[in-house]
Amino acid sequence: QLQLQESGPGVVKSSETLSLTCIVSSGSISSSTYYWGWIRQSPAKGLEWIGSVSKSGSTYSNPSLKGRVFISIDTSKTQFSLRLTSVTAADTAVYFCARLPGSSTWYFDLWGRGTLVTVSS
Amino acid sequence: DIQMTQSPSTLSASVGDRVTITCRASQSIISWLAWYQQRPGKAPNLLIYEASTLESGVPSRFSGSGSGTEFTLTISSLQPDDFATYYCQQYHSSPGTFGQGTKVEIK
To answer: Which member of A47, A60, A109 has the closest CB to residue B55?
Structure first.
């Protein structure tokens, strides 16, 4: 069964760039209509959709993150990645990667376990 | 962004109880609504999409209804595994937005 696993540093310094990768195992990332996305969860903001990417590399990001989000996909490595620039303490959260069923069905039907990222000063 | 408001925030119930959670949208989302269950320390798990369609593998005691701006998630007979936090999410307009959650506690 398809599984998603987030990887990346657990601590990022303020003003630097948060980089996470989601490794997709036991399945293909490129031979379907699925989209792939990132969500974060914090006590202050709850669940927040960060952005998503298609197998062809088309991306969407939440306007509230003001152009700081960059999402990419590497189908040869069956993984997709998130970069969030100029982080502040407000970006401290558990970050999840997830699968979306398609281009017009933007809910999440499969999730990674999540990884806590803390922004330090 | 569309605002999603859940009620109640916390619900105390016993095993076997019928439980209903409400989710209201700040504007019509037709039926583009999903429900998730999240246990402590775990990722959310999809229960229902398109307001009333049960995700594969989800027990039939879970059901969803509603359209427009008001939606409900019902658990017909609460089981020990069901004590968790539940979230709604609209996907009518981007960005998809989540409710603040309803925690179902043991009474």
So the answer is: A109
Question: A91 vs A36, B16, B28, B38, CA distance in Å?
Answer: 20, 40, 30, 21
If we measure between CA atoms, which residue out of A7, A45, A98 comes closest to residue B43? A98
Listing DSSP states for A88-116 in one string gives: -GGG-EEEEEEEESBTTB-S-SEE---EE
Residue-level pLDDT, tens digit, chain B, 107 residues? 999 999 999 999 999 999 999 999 999 999 999 999 999 999 999 999 999 999 999 999 999 999 999 999 999 999 999 999 999 999 999 889 999 999 999 99
Contact A47 B94 (CB under 8 A): no
* CB pair distance less than 8 Å for A48 and B87: no
Tell me which chain A residues have a C-beta less than 8 angstroms from the C-beta of B99: 46
The torsion region of residue A104 among left (phi > 0), alpha (psi -120 to 50) and beta comes to alpha
Q: What is the DSSP letter of A69?
A: E
Instruction: Name the 3-class secondary structure at A64.
Output: helix
